[in-house]
Amino acid sequence: MTTRTGKSNRSRSRSRVRARYKSSSIHNRLGLLLAGIAVILLTIVIFIRSVSLYQKLGQYKSRIETLQTQIDDEEKRSEEIEEFEKYTTTRKYIEEVAKEKLGLVYPGEIIFKDEGAGR
Are 59 and 65 contacting, i.e. CB atoms less than 8 angstroms apart? Predict the structure, then answer.
């Protein structure tokens, strides 16, 4: 069957199918392009965030090292204080304090002082 323009119904339907196919093909390509762009953008964002996270990780590691050094120093100081505390309970320490600060001596003990030291 032919129409006024001389085209058959079959050729019209073929041209319609071709037009739809071209239109859907363009939409598919556009969709794939947009999806690709979205994936690329997400990859860039994730990369930037991971770089900043690695920088923070480095800062935290250096902070941990600093704090660990401070902990070690304080533990050493604590040990020194404990040793001094034990030393202060000994007879030797008590004698030293009595002689140096209070000027006490044992009975019969003779103390020699240098006269030139006071000048």
Answer: no
Cα dihedral 37, 42, 48, 54 sign: negative
Distance between CA atoms of residues 113 and 111, nearest Å: 7
Task: Give me the tens of pLDDT residue by residue for the chain, a chain 119 residues long.
Answer: 445 555 566 666 666 666 666 667 777 888 999 999 999 999 999 999 999 999 999 999 999 999 999 999 999 999 999 999 999 999 999 989 988 888 888 888 887 778 876 55
Which burial class, exposed, middle or buried, applies to 80 when counting CB atoms under 10 A from its CB (0-12, 13-18, 19+)? Answer: exposed
3-state helix/strand/coil string of 86-100:
HHHCCHHHHHHHHHH
Ranges of each domain in the chain: 9-105
Q: Please, which residues bridge with residue 2 across strands? A: 8
Report the Cα–Cα distance between both ends of the chain, in Å, rounded.
138
